[in-house]
Amino acid sequence: MADYTFRVEEYYTGRYREKPLALSEEEVAALIHFLRAVEQEPDIYNSVLEESCPALYNKLNDAAEPLMDELEKEMAKENQQGFYKAWIPDEIVKVAFASGLTHTSALVVSEQDTARAMGSGSLPVLATPRLAALMENAAYEAVAPILEDGDTTVGGEICLRHLAPSPVGAEVTATAVLERTEGRKFTFRLEARQGETLIGEGTHTRFVVNTGRFLQKLK
Questions:
Q1: Per-position DSSP letters for 88-99, written without gaps between them
Q2: What does the DSSP assignment read for 21-47?
Q3: Which domains are assigned to the chain?
Q4: Which residue of 43, 84, 122, 180 has the smallest Cβ count within 10 Å?
Q5: What is the spatial distance between Cα 163 and Cα 1, in angstroms, rounded to a whole number?
Q6: Helix-helix angle 54-76:25-38, to 10 degrees
Q7: CA-to-CA distance for 205 and 164, rounded, in angstroms?
Q8: 151: closest CA among 1, 42, 29?
Q9: pLDDT digits (tens, 9 = 90+) for 129-170
């Protein structure tokens, strides 16, 4: 269990009340799944959440009601009626629709990594497909910590410019930065360097899949 900041807000005036709310890893995973599925504002009052996770919905609603009562009393003193939203904690929303996540993967170029060895060319320099694989690994690792149990990501598209050669023995790094999340689709900006020299750049798209269901389709 971990504490998250739970917030109830009066929509028009922006007045709000907050309280810490303890949620289990399973409850957090359910909220992340809900947010990615519906792709709409993170208000708990949604029929999809209520029907798919009734116990979690009731827990959130029970936490929201006393905060809402406080706001209603404050609004009543001014003879106003309010319209209230109970927001899924920002910490969880940021994970569900993450951006800015990053990871750097490293490689010391070996003979097996060369274009000559991989059949993509005849020279003993880092092969473009090997550089692409290193970049994909960086993107995969960048979002791995936020995935639900049983999920992984698969590559959908990579656009790469290989700008400079790297000989055997060179140390190469590839950095992926998550720029956009659209439901189960992640879009990354890629950059590869040998020391301070930019040797590659591009973009990459990955998709979240359930490992079991994905492998079942291959049979």
A1: PPHHHHHHHT--
A2: EEE-HHHHHHHHHHHHHH-S--BS--H
A3: 2-96 (no CATH), 102-216 (3.10.129.10)
A4: 122
A5: 48
A6: 80
A7: 23
A8: 29
A9: 999 999 999 999 999 988 878 899 999 999 999 999 999 999
